[in-house]
Automatic annotation (TrEMBL):
EC number(s) stated in the UniProt entry for this protein: 6.1.1.6
Record keyword Glycosyltransferase present: no
Protein name as annotated: Lysine--tRNA ligase
UniProt keyword list: Aminoacyl-tRNA synthetase, ATP-binding, Cytoplasm, Ligase, Magnesium, Metal-binding, Nucleotide-binding, Protein biosynthesis, RNA-binding, tRNA-binding
Length: 650
C-alpha cells in the first residue's frame, strides 16, 4: 500500500470513529441524558489519596472524577482505569452492582470520556487498590479520540501545540508542571522566611530598560501612545527600594523580541529581588541558600542529575572573576589589553566576531562566552564584569574598570545575574548617555535614559543588592528537562497555516465531523527561482560526483548569540556523531520551526569557522526573486521525513 493510500485509509478510520462518537452523543441527548447539561460532580477523593490511605478508607464510600483511560468488558463484569489530577486508579464494575441499564451505559463509554464514579474502596485478588463501582455518571463526552495508548503523544511539535493532550497522555509532562508549581511555592516560602515582600509592577512601559534586549512594541488606544512590553523588572523594583520597602521581589512575565530555541522563549518568567543595605556578596549567599533549599524540597537531595551529568549543589559554589576565567580556559589576560585596537586585533586572530560599536569590555565578554561558558558545569559565580557591559552596576572601589556583578552558571548556562546596584544618580546619568550613544549607533539592545528613574535616584537610594533569576531555566534544572518548551505550558510556536491545522478538512457533514482530508496543495511561484552561484557555471562530472549530498535530520537549532543572521544546527547525518552547520538564514526561518525537519546538506566540505564555531558542511537552499521587488526569498530544501538520516543523493 502506498503512503497516500495509507493516509486515506487512516482518515477513513478516523471519520468512522468520529461518527460513532457523535452518534452516541445524539442517542444520549435524545434520551434526555445529555452529559453537557451536568454542571458539577460530587468528588470526595483523588486517586493518590485513596492509595496512600487504603487502610483508613478500605470499605469506605468514595466518589472520584476523572477521564477514562482504559476499559475492559468481560461479560457481566469489567474494569475501568480512571485518571484524575494525581494519577490513575482502577474501578471494578459488574452488572449486578450497577444494574442492567447502567451496565449497558458503562459498555458504551469511550476512552477519553469524563466520568464520576461512586463506590467503596477494596483490594483485588491481585493486590491492586481499586474502587468497587456502584454508580457511574458520564460528565462529558469525548468526541475526538486520544492518541494510541501504548505510545502516547510522542511528536514534540504536537505536544507543545496541544499541551492538553500531552498532559492527559504523558505522566512525565504532568509531573514537570506539578514540580514547577511547587518550585514557585517554595521560592515564595524561602523569601517569606527572609522577610521579603512580593509586589507587582507594570508590564506596559514607556521605557523598557533594565536589560540588554530588544522589546516588543504596542499601542495604548486610550492614551494614543506607543508603549513597550517590559524586558526586565529592575527599574520599578528599585523605585520601591527608594520608597523604603527595603526587601522586595516580583515573579512575572517579561518579553524579549528575540530568537526561539531550546533555552530561549520570547516571553518567559523572571524573578528579580532587591535588598537594601547589602551588596553582591549578600546576593551570592542568598542564591546558594535558595538553590540548596529548593533542591531539598523539590528533588529531596543536593546531588542532582541534569541530562546525565551529576550536579553538586552541596559544596560551596566556586567563585571566579571573568578575567580569571578567560585566563584559565583561553590563556588570555584581558588585564593586559590596554587599547581597543589590541582587543580587536586579538578578536580577529581568534576569529571572534564583534560589532563596530563594541568596546574592550564587550570583546572580553565575547571571549568569555566563546571559551568559558560551556565549561562551567558545576555551580560557579562569575564575578567582576567589565564596566561597559553593566550600565546599572556599582563600580569596584579597587578597580573602576570593573563592576560588582556576578552571574551564576550551572551546566554551562546562566542561571542568575546580580549586582551591587548603582545608586549614584550622577554616574547613572552618564552611563545612560553612553547607552543612548550605542542605541544611536545601531545597538537595538542598548538601554535608554529613564528620567523618572533618575529623579527617583536623586531622592536617594540606599546601598542595595539585586538579582534576577530565569525561573524557566531553574525549573529545567530541577526537573531535568532538556528544552525550555518542556517547562512552559504553552510555549511560543509559529502559527500553523490554516490548511495544516490538525490535518482537518474545511468541509463537514453537518455534524461537525470531518468528511475528507484537505488535499489542495500550496501554490508556490517558482518562476523566479535562481541557481545558487556555487552551481551556476558548468561543473565537470568528476568534480560533482565527489560532493557528498545527503539527508540530515535537525536535532536542534538556535540563533547564534550576537549574530542577527546565523542559525546553528545540530544535525543527525547518519554517522552516529552530531554534525554542526551554521547557516545565515535567520531572516527567513525561526529556529523552532526547523527542529525535526529533514534537510539536504553537502557534508564533505572542509570545516569553516564562523563566529568562533566550526561549520562542517552546507545546507542547500533555493533562492527566488520576488516579483516586482528587489527582495529575495530563500527556501531550505526539505524532504519527506521518511527518508532516513544519512541517505545519499545521486
Amino acid at each position: 500500500m502506498s503512503e497516500k493510500e495509507k493516509n486515506n485509509a487512516n482518515q477513513q478510520d478516523m471519520n468512522h470513529i468520529l461518527k460513532a462518537r457523535y452518534d452516541k452523543l445524539k442517542e444520549l441527548q435524545d434520551a434526555q441524558a445529555d452529559p453537557f447539561l451536568i454542571t458539577k460532580a460530587e468528588q470526595t477523593h483523588h486517586s493518590t489519596e485513596i492509595k496512600e490511605n487504603f487502610f483508613a478508607l478500605e470499605n469506605q464510600q468514595v466518589v472520584i472524577a476523572g477521564r477514562v483511560m482504559a476499559k475492559r468488558v468481560m461479560g457481566k463484569a469489567g474494569f475501568l482505569h480512571v485518571q484524575d489530577r494525581d494519577g490513575k486508579i482502577q474501578v471494578y464494575v459488574s452488572r449486578e452492582s450497577l444494574g442492567e441499564e447502567e451496565y449497558k451505559a458503562y459498555k458504551r463509554l469511550d476512552i477519553g470520556d469524563i466520568v464520576e464514579v461512586s463506590g467503596f474502596v477494596f483490594k483485588t485478588q491481585t493486590g491492586e487498590i481499586s474502587i468497587h463501582g456502584e454508580k457511574i455518571l458520564l460528565l462529558s463526552k469525548s468526541l475526538y479520540p486520544l492518541p494510541e495508548k501504548f505510545h502516547g503523544l510522542q511528536d514534540t511539535d504536537t505536544r507543545y501545540r496541544q499541551r492538553y493532550v500531552d498532559l492527559i497522555m504523558n505522566e512525565d509532562s504532568r509531573d514537570v508542571f506539578m514540580k514547577r508549581s511547587q518550585i514557585l511555592r517554595e521560592i515564595r516560602n524561602f523569601l517569606a522566611g527572609r522577610d521579603f515582600l512580593e509586589v507587582e509592577t507594570p508590564m506596559l512601559v514607556e521605557n523598557a530598560g533594565g536589560a540588554a534586549a530588544r522589546p516588543f512594541e504596542t499601542h495604548y488606544n486610550a492614551l494614543n501612545e506607543d508603549v513597550k512590553l517590559r524586558i526586565s523588572l529592575e527599574l520599578y523594583l528599585k523605585r520601591l527600594i527608594i520608597g523604603g520597602m527595603e526587601r522586595v521581589y516580583e515573579i512575572g512575565r517579561v518579553f524579549r523580541n528575540e530568537g526561539i530555541d531550546t533555552r530561549h522563549n520570547p516571553e518567559f518568567t523572571l524573578m528579580e529581588l532587591y535588598q537594601a543595605y547589602t551588596d553582591y556578596d549578600g546576593m551570592m549567599e542568598l542564591t546558594e541558600s535558595m538553590f540548596r533549599y529548593l533542591a531539598e524540597k523539590v528533588c529531596g537531595t543536593l546531588h542532582i542529575s541534569y541530562q546525565g551529568t551529576p550536579i553538586d549543589l552541596e559544596s560551596p559554589f566556586r567563585r571566579l572573576t571573568m578575567t580569571d576565567a578567560i585566563k584559565e580556559y583561553a590563556g588570555i589576560d584581558f588585564d593586559k589589553i590596554q587599547t581597543l585596537e589590541e582587543a580587536r586585533a586579538l578578536a580577529k586572530e581568534k576569529e571572534i566576531a564583534y560589532e563596530e560599536h563594541h568596546g574592550i569590555g564587550d570583546i572580553e565578554n565575547l571571549f568569555f562566552e566563546e571559551y568559558c561558558e560551556e565549561k562551567l558545569i558545576q555551580p560557579t559565580f562569575i564575578m567582576d564584569h567589565p564596566l561597559s557591559i553593566s550600565p546599572l552596576t556599582k563600580k569596584k572601589p579597587s578597580d573602576p574598570t570593573k563592576v560588582e556583578r556576578f552571574e551564576l552558571f550551572i551546566y554551562g548556562r546562566e542561571m542568575a545575574n546580580a549586582y551591587s546596584e548603582l545608586n549614584d544618580p550622577i554616574d547613572q546619568r552618564e552611563r545612560f548617555k553612553a547607552q543612548d550613544a550605542l542605541a544611536d549607533a545601531g545597538d537595538e539592545e542598548a538601554n535608554h535614559t529613564d528620567e523618572d528613574f533618575l529623579h527617583a535616584m536623586e531622592i536617594g537610594m540606599p546601598p542595595t543588592g539585586g538579582i534576577g533569576y530565569g525561573i524557566d531555566r531553574l525549573v529545567m534544572l530541577l526537573t531535568d528537562s532538556a528544552s525550555i518548551r518542556d517547562v512552559l505550558l504553552f510555549p511560543t510556536m509559529k502559527s500553523l497555516d490554516k490548511k495544516d491545522e490538525g490535518n482537518r478538512a474545511s468541509k463537514g457533514n453537518g455534524n461537525g465531523i470531518c468528511d475528507q482530508v484537505a488535499t489542495v496543495p500550496e501554490k508556490i511561484d517558482f518562476s523566479n527561482v535562481k541557481i545558487e552561484p556555487l552551481f551556476e557555471e558548468q561543473v565537470d562530472f568528476e568534480t560533482f560526483s565527489k560532493s557528498d549530498f545527503r539527508a540530515v535530520k535537525v536535532k536542534d537549532c538556535f540563533a547564534v548569540p550576537k549574530s542577527k543572521k546565523l542559525l546553528q544546527f545540530t544535525l543527525d547525518d547518519g554517522t552516529g556523531t552530531d554534525r554542526t552547520i551554521l547557516s545565515g538564514i535567520h531572516d527567513f526561518y525561526e529556529p523552532e520551526e526547523l527542529i525535526g525537519k529533514t534537510l539536504i546538506a553537502i557534508t564533505n566540505l572542509p570545516p569553516r569557522a564562523m563566529m568562533g564555531v566550526e561549520s562542517c558542511g552546507m545546507l542547500l537552499s533555493a533562492i527566488n526573486q520576488k516579483k516586482d521587488s528587489d527582495e529575495e526569498e530563500l527556501h531550505l530544501l526539505m524532504v519527506d521525513d521518511h527518508i532516513p538520516a544519512g541517505a545519499k543523493l545521486y
